Amino acid sequence: MSTRVYLNLFAVVLTLAVIMLGAYTRLSDAGLGCPDWPGCYGHLDVPTSQAAMDSAGAQFGQAVETGKAWREMIHRYFAGTLGLVILALALLALRRTADPHQQRVLPWVTVGVVICQALLGMWTVTLLLKPLVVTAHLLGGMTILALLSLCLFRQGALMVNWPANGLKSLRLLAGLGLVVLVCQIFLGAWTSTNYAALACPDFPTCQAQWWPQTDFETAFTLWHGLGINYEYGILSSVPRQTIHWSHRLGACVVALTMLVLAVRLFMASRADGRWAGLGGALLGVVGLQIALGISTVVFHLPLYVAVGHNGGAALLLLTLVAINHAAWRARHG
Questions:
Q1: What is the dihedral of CA 196, 143, 316, 23, to 10 degrees?
Q2: Burial class for 112, CB neighbours closer than 10 Å (0-12, 13-18, 19+)
């Protein structure tokens, strides 16, 4: 493989790490560990001496919590490194080569998304964890992962020209699966940013009811104004359980859609057995994600399980991008 491909692969792995670190930072309540951006209390790192901490606390009006601050800064360091790697990929795309698979547009599209992502990261802090901004920030990270993985898949002959019958239905199901997953990722992010993960502390019921009391209008009001500190959430119990319940219903839709898609992939394996590998991978990741989601509720939001649930969403997105790439690059069997 060329240097460009290795760098692309490293960018995908690094993006997964940044997504997981972002989830860890958010779920450990360290999103405001540094009240300013891009530094931390006016420093490029976290102030640790007592004099520096006292000065920073007086300047920013809050005590320095070094643990939270370091979690936030490590996430920023990783994100900054990822931005530089993506810029390097874009610059390499400008080089003239004889490689017909060289990607010239996607790397620069990804650079544009990274710039938007940096702005969202800044607003996450300056707008005090506004749910709409934090949700958009998470979706931006997932978008970067999808673009980088698609760029990687297009670098060579990976999953290209597999024979399959009924390509139209396969492509339709693959595209539908991706759309459904993106909607569910939004619901998951909205659940997390509104601190609704434990709004339904029981499973499979919610507040001991199969259909709990709901308030969709308040639950999905995207804009609540400026100047509000959204740390730990501002919604009452009913809107929070509405968000949580919606996420559970979305999980049922995702599971059913992925099952139908997996069956279709196994049917395509009659023409080429490699489709069964994608179908098996899809079922495996979906099963893992469901188990992590249930465990998050049953065990009352253990940090590493919740972080793993975010990682599972990222892996599921990677799998759907791979399936769509294979379906649209396939040939009639």
A1: -40
A2: exposed
Would you say the pTM of this structure is higher than 0.90?
Answer: yes
- Work out whether the CA dihedral 278, 280, 285, 287 comes out positive or negative: positive
End-to-end, the C-alpha distance of the chain in Å comes to: 29
- The active-site residue, picked from 65, 72, 217, 231, is 72
Q: Are 28 and 71 in contact (CB under 8 A)?
A: yes
Do 163 and 330 form a contact (C-beta atoms < 8 A)?
yes
> Which residues on neighbouring strands pair with residue 164, listed in sequence order?
332
Tell me the one-letter amino acid at 114.
Answer: V
Query: pLDDT at residue 216 above 80?
Result: yes
Count other Cβ atoms within 10 Å, centred on residue 107. 24
pLDDT range class, residue 1, cuts 50, 70, 90: low
Tens digits of residue pLDDT in 104-140:
899 999 999 999 999 999 999 999 999 999 999 999 9
> From CA 146, how far away is CA 50, in angstroms rounded?
43
Locate the DSSP E strands across 83-228: 163-164
**261 residue type, one letter:** L
Neighbours of 153 (CB within 10 A): 22
Q: Taking the CA atoms of 156, 158, 160 and 166 in sequence, report the sign of the dihedral they define.
A: negative
231 catalytic per annotation: no
List the structure tokens of 260.
């139908």
Residue whose structure tokens are 């995207």: 222
Provide the 10 A C-beta neighbour count for residue 217. 9
Residues with Cβ within 8 Å of residue 297, at least 6 apart in sequence: 197, 198, 200, 201, 202, 203
How does 168-194 read in b/e, with b if 16+ C-beta sit within 10 Å?
A: eebbebbeebbebbeebbbbbbbbbbb
- String of DSSP letters for 48-74: -SHHHHHHHHHHHTS---HHHHHHHHH
In degrees, rounded to 5, the angle at the alpha carbon of residue 7 between the alpha carbons of residues 5 and 10 is 110
Query: How far is it, in rounded angstroms, from Cα 332 to Cα 171?
Result: 12
